[in-house]
Amino acid sequence: MSEFFRKHRNELGLAVAVLVVVAITATLSETYHSAAGRAETARIIFREAAMLGIFALGAAVVIIAGGIDLSAGSIIAFSGTIFFGLLITLAPDDPGTRWASDANLHFPQTDELALWIPAVALLITLAIAFLVGSFHTWLITVIELPPFVATLASLVGLRSLARLLIQDITVLQYGQRQSTITINDELLTSVSRESWWVSCVLWLVLSGALWVLLSKTIVGRHLYAMGGNEEAARLSGIRTDRLKWLAYCLSSMTAALAGVLYACYIGTTSPATDGMGYELNAIAAAVVGGCSLTGGIGTVAGVILGTLFLRVIIDSVAKLFRSQPDLFEGLVVGMLVVLAVAVNQLRSTGGVRKPYFPGLLGLLNVAIISVLAGVMTSVTSSEAKLRNGLLVAGGTLVILGARAIAERVKGRGSRV
Amino acid sequence: MTLDPRPSTLSHIAVRSITKRFPGVTALQDVSLSVARGELHAICGENGAGKSTLMKILAGVITEYDGELQIAGRSVRFAGTRDAAAAGVSIIHQELNLVGSLSVAANIFLGREVRRAGWLLDDRGMEQATAELFAQLETDIRPSRLVRELRVGDQQLVEIAKALSLRSDILIMDEPTSALTDQEADRLFRVIGRLRQQGVTILYISHKMDEIFRLADRITVLRDGSLVRTLDREQTSRREITHLMVGREIESVRLEDGRCPGDALLDVEDLSLPWPGHARRWRLENVSFQLRRGEVLGIAGLMGAGRTELLECLFGAASPPPQGRILLDGRPVAFTHPAEAKAAGMAMVSEDRKRLGLFSRMTVRENITLCTLRDALRGGLIQDSRERRLARESVEQLSIRTAGTEAAITSLSGGNQQKCIIARWLRTQPRVLLLDDPTRGIDVGAKAELYTIIDALCRRGMGIIVTSSELPELVTLCDRILVLCEGRVTGELARGEFSEQRIMEFATQREVHASAGAAS
Known about the structure:
The structure holds two protein chains of two kinds.
Chain A lengths: L1 H6 L1 H20 L6 H30 L7 H19 L25 H26 L5 H28 L6 E2 L3 H4 L7 H20 L1 H11 L1 H6 L4 H27 L1 E2 L8 H11 L11 H21 L4 H24 L10 H22 L4 H31 L1
Helix pairs in contact in A: 2-13, 3-8, 3-11, 3-12, 3-13, 4-5, 4-6, 4-11, 4-12, 5-11, 8-9, 9-11, 12-13, 13-14, 15-16
Chain B lengths: L10 E12 L2 E12 L3 E5 L6 H8 L7 E6 L2 E3 L4 H6 L2 E4 L11 H5 L6 E2 L3 E2 L1 H14 L15 H14 L4 E5 L7 H16 L3 E5 L3 H7 L2 E6 L2 E7 L5 H9 L1 H4 L12 E11 L7 E11 L3 E5 L6 H8 L8 E6 L2 E3 L4 H6 L2 E4 L3 H5 L6 H6 L7 E2 L2 E2 L1 H14 L16 H13 L5 E5 L7 H16 L3 E5 L3 H7 L2 E6 L2 E7 L5 H8 L6 H5 L2
Parallel strand pairs in B: 3-10, 3-11, 6-9, 9-10, 15-22, 15-23, 18-21, 21-22
Antiparallel strand pairs in B: 1-2, 1-4, 4-5, 7-8, 11-12, 13-14, 13-16, 16-17, 19-20, 23-24
């Protein structure tokens, strides 16, 4: 039993953290006080977590394999564009409409699409994502670009490509340049309302499959081995290039699947803004979930909990900050990501006994953290901003300063 | 054989009861030592005896230890190499600590660059100063060349010049001649003579008896982290030092008796490995040899001679791929990836255990079963109980000392980690086992166990190739020794013809004498 706790400390800690955050939000926010409110909140959290979770799993596989994939956000935009672009291309004409420029041509009819159309579109979208992943792998293994650079190129390039493509597609189908495509098919857009469970089921199935892959198969063990020590893995007769191919394709294909879900959820694809910055959310979910960016460490359960934690926090911010919660989201998420990873890191290295504020850098950071705490208090308080900010900043300064001084006294003691 | 406890007021360096433990191994156990000003004090011991650890403590590389260190009568505790340098201690590392992409001069002045006008680097000045240092060493390396373009021997000279440039009054030399030719070594000895005239105290680590008896005033022998004895050179002999270094347990290992190598297993013909962009052009040039079933073939050579590269070629791990022919069991093979070599029955334990062998984040079990996970499959999935059983089997077979198969690999001592890696490969049931310096950084006890394992494997008909930086090890283990020098085979010795001296002669031979290569 204690063995179980030791081995899954990270996952258990996260599970507790998720419950604590939910409990705090539930006591402070009145949306939790009605059954309908609770159900609605749960639905939102799970739907959002599922969509993030799907490509966070892909990102985690790459991280475990010792790489990094920064392209998820633009693959979401790109695949949404491809998917909707294919839908309007394959959809039959609507004879009741006419192009503005050419009265003989009709708009595509997307209200009730035959089932084969989204199915084919989805397959083609995933196939294209496979090609993107394969291209990344080629850049990384053959051209020997660092993964950061190879996928950074896609991060900026693919979004741009999607924005160009959508113009050409809309010219062909609507007779005019547009930067968005909207689909009205009820089956597809129901993902945003009654069929919210679709994403959850996909997330669950994918999690199960990846759990088996990572912890029960040879390929999975080899992925961990490669992430931990790539050269040793190669010299152990492991085909590391093929493993990378798998990892990067899993990452781009899960991102594409999430892209399709996001597009259906909104009903409109808009490559200029879709999935902007989501690659970092995915990486954050993986890292909070216990994956090490140096590779070789991480579990599917951890990534699931990391994703949930992130979404629960975002939901909590949305409920607890009554005005402009979206402004606070980044601040709170950033802080908690640092905190979660720092706790993990300190546990494995020096723990609490290690000096946190050595030298000039330490003193400077005592000041930085105090100011940060003060500013954050000040911007979140609704009245007496200045007084609250100064109070908290002063308090933090005293506490951290005391710690810094204690460290110096102790350090001198142990040296003599 | 009198111990000479010179009064501590005179001793330049005094080490008092220093103990250093690494996870899983005690590197130094209660070592006390004093060195007089101007003395050349040799430290001897096998690999893993604790020599380098002691020197690293003196040079401020290792800062966590128990015990006390005094320099010139004052107690010191270095917080880093800068402290040590300020106290007048500098070190020539055994492992080269150079930045390949910087010039020779930039390396020598790294961290204390000569400046002009406060901020700008004075490259010209540094290059001039470097040239003067090289003149002392009677060598003509161009100071503006990039270090990575130099031969390993020249790189070692750069290390030496770097240490000299500090003008320290305590100089630690950790196997300074391991990559030098005889001529270069002679020049170094002349420099050492001049330094001694200037009153520099030198700690000299080596296991080459010739050097030690030529240079040292006193000799300290370490074994398994403990100081065995300190002796005056005049009052001891090579035999005694060797005896103290090795201890009795190794001598009792008699390995070669009754081994009878069978038919040819591996034939290597004219193997060459290009070295693009390098003056030597070939890392390996026209290497030919044969390995037989049930034979241990040793590969000897100085650093940079191509030992590791040769094994990598055989294992399909070299890039670019080598030229020439390799026949395994009479059939030509050309491996392009270690996976192919593994499938054909080859196994390789690499030289740098931490970097190239160990999965430090995994358990003992995972490290052992990695290459043979197929055996633990059931219905396509790894079955935990099976995998554990396989790992336990290997742990018992090689008597690996571990808390269990689920222990972290890093909790084991170096020798037991190495046994795990060997176990990983033995599970693949290889026909040819390539061992690249398998006892590096392993304590003497574990070494003897490895020798026994190697012997047993060879008696079962496996063909084994061993490289080693320690000649006595090859002499103990091998049926035949192939000597490499700068990528070429310069000699081949059969058991009976072995002697450290003959091997060294071949290993430092810069001109290849075809007759010598074929003599045996």
